Amino acid sequence: MRIRNQLFVGTALAFLSTPAFAQLQEPVPPAGTSGPTEAESVAQQFDEPPIAQGSGDEIIVTATKRASTIQDVPFSVNAQTQEDIERANATSIEEIARNVAGLAVQNLGPGQSQVSIRGVSAGQIVRDQPGVKEQVGVYLDESVISLSLFTPDLDLFDLNRVETLRGPQGTLFGSGSVGGTIRYITNQPVLGRTEGMIEANINTVAEGDLGYHLKGAINVPLGPTAAMRAVAYGTHFGGFIDAFGPAGGKNVNDGSRVGGRVSILWEPTPELKLTPRVVYQKAKANGFNRQEVFNLYSNPFTVPSFTFDEREQFLLLREEFRDKTMLADLTASYDFGPVELVSISSYIDREILVSRDASALTGSVSVDLAFPISAVLLPSNLRDTTDLNQFTQELRLASTGVGPFQWVAGLFYSDVKRDYTQRLPTPGYASFVDAALGAGTSAAVANGFPNLDSPYNADLPYDINQKAVFGEGTYDFGQFKLTAGGRYYDFKEKRDFVNGGLFAPGATLLDQETKSTGFSPRVIGTWEPNRNLNVNLQAAKGFRLGGVNDPLNLPLCSPADEDIFGPFQGAYEDETLWNYEGGVKYSRGPLTMNAAIFHTRIKDLQVTLDAGTCSSRIVFNVPKAHTTGIEAEVAVRPMPGLDLSVAGSYVNAEFDSTLPEPLATTTGIRDGNRLPSVPKFQMAATAHYMQRFSANADWYVNGSFQHVGSRFTQPSDQENNPRTFVAGLPVFGMPANAATTLNLRLPSYNIVNLSAGLQFDSGMEVVAYVNNIFDENPLLSFDRERGGRARLGFNVGQPRIIGLTFRQKFSAAGAAPPPPFIAPPPPPPAPPATQTCADGTVILATEMCAPPPPPPAAPGERG
Prior knowledge:
There is one protein chain. 7% of the residues lie in helices and 49% in strands. By secondary structure, it is mainly beta. The protein has a 22-stranded antiparallel β-barrel. A 5-stranded mixed sheet has the order 3-8-9-6-7. It has a 3-stranded antiparallel sheet with strand order 16-39-38, with no helix packed on it. A hairpin with a 7-residue loop joins strand 4 and strand 5 (114-117). The longest helix is centred in the middle third of the chain and has 10 residues, at 359-368. The radius of gyration is 33 Å and the shape is elongated.
């Protein structure tokens, strides 16, 4: 029976708080030795090494862009393996995050999650902020796929693992990794082997819809030097939000995700490997997971009055999210002996649509403008589109020897073209505008945009170039290792901003430019007193590029909001931080414990805030902030068949600066206030028990408990909280002073999952599971429209899901590749001709034998 434990990274068992990791440690070389372990040597045969199948099921990662075990990586890393993902029945990075120490995901709707690591968070980034850069870099194998707000919601099928690299990773992974890096590592093609898996699932959502999926993967050899791996999947997500109103319906937020990838490995010689790949995915949601409390058209103050229950909303128009992603990349490597050269070329084409029911927003403005009720009732559709084209190229050299000095160095280039547009089509609106404000008003404020029935239009094309040189080296002194590296970067961003319509200031801003150059270093010291323990200390710098704020939508702003936020239009600076941490990794026998304690000092933190009633967002630079915390992960096998793990983190993330009033109260940027979206305490505990069921099968049961602490969506949410929102819209029977009071502190929540299954030796597996057994309704983020005047609500998590999964894995060894041709050695030269002399000596035939000695003298003779 084979069971894999989980690996964990952090500070010490004495710390009771902390999150989850996974692995049973294989013995490592004694302190003082150098060079890769046997598992590492095997793993280095692959560009993205699979889980090593040696003793102990040691997990190999590439967090340092070199294959190594998790315990040997000199900083805090988590690896959720394919087995971990299957056990958790996880379908998204959000579900994975609950099991990983220090990893938090803020859900803002389908495909719009924001990731933070160790509390480094700027809060909510919304749809119309394409210029804001991500704080966590996301990679698919070696290709960069992160995009602020729209981190791809990748399917997790046939992944080898998901790596979480904690702390700034600017040295090897660049901007966007200021808080850390997440890497989806796929299973790679394997030579000489036919293998694969089919997976089918059906599930039901509590008080919701049916969900299901069908997925398959296959690896086939293409002759002795090539192989192909193909993956295809299709998923239908059951909805669980009910909507009322003209566009109402049951389970309106159902969706789908279909896609696949094909990769080919070609090894024409043992030294050369080429791996081209194509990835395609289309994700779609027919609505958003928004639970409303107040809507302009229906609320406790309207006539008739209406009070929303859990998982309910009001719609004049159906909503939609679409994300089509195509990735093509080529990884090539050549082993020169002492060094290996690796090239990664990738191209991404993404098309994203966020189509929202903005009727309440447009209608609230119409009320302010004293338009008739018929104008207030017009359906209004806010359509945000993103068209992304991104090319990246990386070249790097890495040492491959076994000496005490190991190093990696490289060059990186990227060119990102991102065209963002906003439209607010509201059929019939122009006639009401012209009737109330004068004939020709709609055309006069359009600023060249053709649809006069759209009161807001914007075009924002971006062109972002990055060049970088990076390197990192480690010297092994015996029990002590020193790692040092850095990255020199050169960023340049150009953008245009053109908007028009009644709600817009009618701005035309061309060739706005942001530039930045700098150096991000990292230094790590590691002490390994014995084979089971290592202690590391680290200092590292992170970086995030600044940008330019969009002009405020002044026609929608109240005079007070215009006075407060108007001066902050314009550029915002780069964000930098220094992270200092100490970590301990211990593994012996059935026990693995990893922990870390860290302190991060942040300068010019880019914080995103709603600009009051303006329906605009502003990025502020907060001079000082910090995060301080501890994370720990423990895995143990107390008896054969039983694996236990616990992981948790405690993070104190706060501002260290206070803006002058009234900004401090309005924005929440006050010394001692919490950074947004980050729980102080988060933990997960899992138990897995497996025993033999019959002569040809195992049975198992798996349970997990996940706790996520309270959070705030934006910094301002902790000021004057609980908050009273006054709509000031005397319409549909509402009094002008109608007020709604809400606690904006997102409460902590607990999720309990349970599964049981049969695993047959033939590769078949049947799993029954229940996720969120107690049907918790977690509030994931606060949703407001026009500062809360038009709509108030929360994005919520999935209710209880009951499901059944069937898997069939198969594997068959193909014909072994022929051994490499080795030319026979040349025959030895023919020996030279010889002769034997009279005295028996052997000499060359070309030589003369020595003359015989004279005969002895006869007796009596004298000379």
